[in-house]
Amino acid sequence: MTPSLIAACLWALIATLIALGPRRFHWRAAWGLIGLGVPLLGWVTYENGVLVGLLVMAGGMSVLRWPLIYLWRRLRGA
Q1: Where, by residue number, does the polypeptide cross the bilayer (predicted)?
Q2: Whole-prediction pTM value?
Q3: Could you tell me the residue range of the domain that residue 13 belongs to?
Q4: Which of 28, 35, 38, 47 has a 20 to 30 Å separation from 63 between CA atoms?
């Protein structure tokens, strides 16, 4: 397993632990996860290829689905 995939697994573990925490921290933590996840996704794609990058992106989108839903609603309403 490449170091980028290990880091992506750690990111997913941290996201899961944050989801188990109090709700008042979720949005701040979501912005932190997005900030860490974007460069991590680029690193995974660079080391492992586009297909693995798309799979990791789908996993990240499933974890951070509410920010994506709100973004989609805002873009549709504009």
Answers
A1: 48-72
A2: 0.86
A3: 3-77
A4: 47
